Amino acid sequence: MTSSQTKYRLGLLSLVVSIALVAIKFYAYRLTRSQAVLTDALESIINVATSGFALYSLYLAGLPKDENHPYGHGKVENLSLGFEGGLIFMAGAFILYSATKSFIHPHPVGRPDWGVLLLASTAVVNLGVGLLLVRTGKRLNSVALVGDGQHLYIDALTSIVSSAALVLVAATGVVRFDSGAALLLGGFILVNGWRMVRRSVSGLMDETDTAVVTEVIAELQAQRRAPWIDVHNLRVQRYGANLHIDCHMQMPYYFTLEEVHSQLFDIEELIRARFAVEVEMFVHADPCTFAACSLCLMAECPVRLHAFQHEVEWNLQNAVKNERHRLP
Q: What is the CATH topology of the domain spanning 3-204?
């Protein structure tokens, strides 16, 4: 089974589970008329909508590149995450509004025993499915699956808090525990929705993924060869699970085109081997200048004008800059 098929099947599982659990939660609300249970049920409606959109985005992300999408369709996963976060944010705002009214004008809660039983069962299912989605999403570098799984975590947490509120109401008779829990959950949902939107915008705007860039630079440094005099202007873009990497590599100016091509091919292959996803890499070869002699490792260079002094170690601070390195 391909990674695209795996992601699509897990997305379908998330959708089916979300539909089943939202029905259970609204039945629990019918029995209890609890504000906390209603909060949980409303948040689960968002699960259904977002799981459906995530499923569609996983289908699109798995499509091959075409003339209209030369870098593939992976960016739609970031759009899915933003859509999910936006709906969660709006749900959190509505829940806060509704819970505030209920806190000011509390109403009795009925059948808390059945409410606790039903919500606890949904929490167990959500935790299990959410854990599966997050683990697989991280392994396959799918932001849509990870986002969907984290949303199920949130849903499980709301169910646990709602159950605890029902237990407190039953034990103490204080009805405001119910609306107080709903207020707490509304604020929590609001914050998490905003965080998901923020991550979505970061991906769509190609914000630097520091961890991936650092990993690429570290691999180049670890596998460094003498003809690779200097690397700069290194950039990494993520398209769904796949990576697009480009950089400038300074090489001896007297190398033939065939020699340069061989070195560039080796660079691309070692980076592709480092990551478990599809990597598209473009390396622009720059001819060296005599200013690079002092940091060049070519021991048998026939045109060296200056003695080698020391190697410039590539790191996150210097490899991403659009300028050649030189010693002071």
A: Alpha-lytic protease prodomain-like (1.20.1510)
